[in-house]
Amino acid sequence: MGDFSSLGLSDWLVKQCKQLGINKPTPVQENCMPAILQGRDCMGCAKTGSGKTAAFVLPVLQKLSEDPYGIFCLVLTPTRSLAYQIAEQFRVLGKPLGLKDCIIVGGMDMVTQALELSNQPHVVVATPGRLADHIRSSNTFSMKRIQFLILDEADRLLEQGCTDFTKDLEVILEILPAKRQTLLFSATLTDTLQELKSIAMNKPFFWESKSETRTVEELDQRYILTPEKVKDAYLVHLIQTFTDEHDDWSIIIFTNTCKSCQILTMMLREFNFPTISLHSMMKQKQRFANLAKFKASVYKILIATDVAARGLDIPTVQVVINHNTPGLPKIYIHRVGRTARAGRNGVSITLVTQYDIHLIHSIEEQIQTKLKEYPVVEKEVLKILTQVNVTRRECEIKLESTDFDEKREINKRKQLILEGKVTAGAKLTMAFVTAHNQYFPARLWESNLQLNTSRLKFQSSDVHLT
Q1: pLDDT tens by residue, 337-361
Q2: CA 90, 93, 98: angle at the middle one, nearest 5?
Q3: What's the whole-model pTM score?
Q4: Which of 91, 364, 433, 461 shows the smallest number of beta carbons within 10 Å?
């Protein structure tokens, strides 16, 4: 593996990388960047934490420095949080250029976004649906000079709903020049992803990591076998042990549900751990604020649902704890990929109950690695068991008093309406519930909604952050 200069990067970009502690290219960068710099279309598939974002940001910045005029690059990505992270990488690496970027995602004011687009930023990072909305409703900006179209996490764009994405992509492609470079990057190569190859026509270069279904060598993967009722005591003990042994530390804890995420956050705060949460029940501004505070080390512990499992790039994260064993190996890989990123070391610890043994075996088979048992002093865990269980129950009671479950159900219905999965009658019911929630009994709302959506099954897995 050579250095960035050998890949064809300009001296100023090599210097900028070194100042940020990026000294050697990762495999995806080493293989894809020369082809991109040569003007070829590119599809790159590599596991999370492999440096995919920099693999397209650096070549784009080099080309931009040669012709810095108008909207030069469009990046489409599936989620708002990922859009902000990509834009941040463009800003940091492109600082010497005085780069102007624009983020076009849902949940933000359309008028403000339209003004930003009309100012002709160099780079636009967008979710497809919101950008398509702007194209349909406005003619105040032009993308005729775009040199790069980039689809990041392309497999997830398709997972969100191939029909909707295809419609939005068609709207976007109509206003883009035919002569451009198209770059597709993904963590996994799926069958549906093959459909996107048709939009990459300029001597397309394809590269796939041979270890895309495995975890990185720098990751120390551990497990703790625990009874379900003792799991939280083990969690508190783990955090206490780690904080006592390290001065500089940062932990992400993954859990299955929004409710569990909220309860664990409340519980750990009762033990004076600097904890913050990230889940889809929060408003968008709150999620961004919480993520910024964690990245700035204002809070050392982030508890998150799988909404944050992919694309979250925080180099300082040293430990990932799975409060529950993921049901699928790919979810496990995405979670633990939040640490040991870009050549750094990291530790992952999964709390495994007697009901999860088969899941661990499936994970080990997929990643071709045996998880090692994490050493724990059982007596220390037993000392805090009663206190932890009492504290958790108190937090559950507090959360129940806030009508958290009812708000969660409302959010589920709102999401289904946005996705077009609820009938018009149900939308009217939803509007009434939203306006008069405190006066409308939840069970009455449930029965009315079921009359209009009798064939729908509402599950937590139906809700995705976009």
Answers
A1: 888 876 678 999 999 999 999 999 9
A2: 80
A3: 0.60
A4: 461
